[in-house]
Amino acid sequence: MYSGGTLLTVAELGVTFEVPEGWFxxxxxxxxxxxxxxxxxxxxxxxxxxxxxxxxxxxAAMSAPFPVDxxxxxxxxGTPEVEGEWVRVGYSGTDGVNSLSGFAMAKVDPExxxxxxxxxxxxxxxEYFQDLVRRLVASTKSAPVVDRAGGASDPAAGVSxxxxxxxxxxxxxxxxxMSTYGSSGGGNVGSTAKRELYMCRNGEFYYTDESLxxxxxxxxxxxxxxxxxGQGQWRIVxxxxxxxxxxxxDNGDTTTHLLEFTDxxxxxxxxxxxxxxxxxxx
Length: 282
Known about the structure:
With 282 residues, the protein is mainly β. It folds into 2 domains: 7-142, 3-Layer(aba) Sandwich (Protein Transport Mog1p, Chain A); 161-276, no CATH class. It is built from 3 helices and 20 strands. It has helices spanning 55-61, 126-139, 161-170, and strands at residues 7-10, 15-18, 24-26, 33-37, 44-50, 66-67, 73-76, 81-83, 86-94, 99-107, 114-122, 141-142, 174-184, 188-199, 204-217, 220-239, 242-249, 254-262, 265-268, 271-276. Strand 9 (86-94) and strand 10 form a beta hairpin. The longest helix has 14 residues, at 126-139. The chain is elongated. The two termini are 24 Å apart.
């Protein structure tokens, strides 16, 4: 779930945009579009990819009615118009009970990496929804484009909507695992372990592992410790409703770790990891 002010990257399209303040949402399971809603306003916002490189095709597509669901249909108020690299059009319609007003703008990209924003709500608030779409357009910026052949540095490369949500959750963050162990009975044995994953927004990661074991048996004691580190590239992989973190280490190894999110807690391979913004590495 993304809230207002969140900067989203659509890796396949090579664009970023900011979720408007007062709105929140995500990508419903099995959908190819993002749906936003608000607790303070009636209406909806849709963001989805637009692959046509022909402005005439986009003009024709936006001249047709837009079916939102089984009861809601939006029809163009007039002829769509070109505005720079965008095509714009106003809509009117009904949800079966209430009259609606809407506005949409579609980016036409020469490489087929365009995007469409559509907002609609009560007829009396038509100007608000037009302004809302224009704010989305103004926030849209270019971003690194995914290289599907494998050379991409973006961790969201070619992933599903579920994968995009995990990428947003982990990108730029510090993941930390900590454990302690102690025993007694004829002596004392204790150990601590701390593992950290620095998740860079460009798809790189840096890993550290520190451990310490202490032993005290009948007056004789000792300790041992160790450190390890590594780095490489990370990305999210998904299969159905399952998600995993794939780490491609610079030494040539590749490891994959099960991701789970339960009770607002993040788990890797069923171990609790803390996700914080204390990423001092990247």
